[in-house]
Please model this.
Amino acid sequence: MFAIPGIVLLLTAIYARPQELVPSLQTLPLLHVLLGLAVFGYVIDLRLGNTKPSSTPLLPWVLAFVGWGLLSGITKASSLPIQARELAICAALYLLMAHAVQSFRALQVVAGTVLAMVIFVSTVAVEQKLEPTGCVQIDESVVGDTTSGSFDGRPCTVSHDCYLGEAEPGAEYMCEHIGWLGTTSVGRGRIRFRGILQDPNELALAGAIGLPLAFALSRLRRRSFSRKAVLLLTFALVVLAAVWSRSRGGQIVFLAVLAVPFAWRFGLRGVALSALFAAPLLLLGGRSGSEADSSMLERVDCWAEALSIWRSFPLLGAGLGQFGRYHYLTAHNSYLLTLAELGPVGMFLFSSLVWMGFKIPISAWRKSEDPDSALSREDARDVVRPWAMAITATFAGLGVGIFFLSFAYHYVLWIYLGLSGALFSAIRRHAPDFAVRYGMRDALGVIAANGVIIAVVYVYTRLVLS
Model:
């Protein structure tokens, strides 16, 4: 399949950010080039009959959400905001992964690439914590970002040390751990990566939702010591990343991810077991004291502002990418971000999109238990179930994690939507009768869930900020 190498390179570029490390790549629109390469490969596959034109249950929701967002951007702003370009790339990512990957072998390659990138960025971030601290001069040319900067070569113990000796006049400094590839910690030692994962919270989320992929690969038919070693390595890196990033949201995501395989194995007792298993992590990690209180108040203030923006634009929202016009920070909640920018219709479309990404693997698992289905055969079941469990776990984590992060237009979310769509496409190749439908019960459930989110956040913000 000619599309797969392009998709692999594209995923590598999104996570690893080689264009930020190699000077010759900085003038090249690498993301667009690799996206074009993957599309070209997909066209060749279609012409050769390697893949067939297909649809997935996610496709209508992807098109509806992206279309609504672009329409909102056009009507609410004088020019399309940068989020419009990001949203278009997100949609292209989904379309490539969900429709060009139509076999379990290809799914294993693509999911394995995502897992390899999770291991890579987690390794760099964890190693960062083991390095000594140094003076990081803040790059003031990056508007609205006070955490970007580079190591100036001087060691330090506290930030005050950086203003002594050979300090640049008027420059601002941080004293942080200096890691591989020019990475630095932030916020007095919180580990992170760079690019789309330069926020410690997003790093912790990306690591936790990548862990189920290691479980899936370790449970496929060809089980080996190397796959178990990869699982143990991934688990250790994810735990360390969650602790050293001091991300409370990331640790909750880790708990949600563990709850799925435990629940499938042991029922309701499994949820309690997963909580007990993750308790040490929740006790070790996270910020405390005034730092934690300040962070929580900041997030609650952003939630309150999101509701305030929605009240000002109750039908259509403020417009794609317009949240920053009304508040100096983002919403810190994907559901509220889409509500504020795209109105209740946008929130409904986004929530339905996430729900369908969750429903596909659940339906696949249930279908594998149907004795009349082709998926119930032992050879098919042994392949379908590990992927169904893994992708269900990732969406359990995503559903929780994006409640605390503005992830609606984030590449990582759309990569996993693509994996869910790819699972559907791979199953349809072996079981053409496999279908996942969105009915009235789904719509009412999404509307009810959105209503609960709005009501709970409204009451909570009033209590905290009053």
Summary: Strands lie at 133-138, 149-155, 173-177. Residues 218 and 225 are 9 Å apart (CA to CA). The mean pLDDT is 89. The two ends are 58 Å apart (CA to CA).
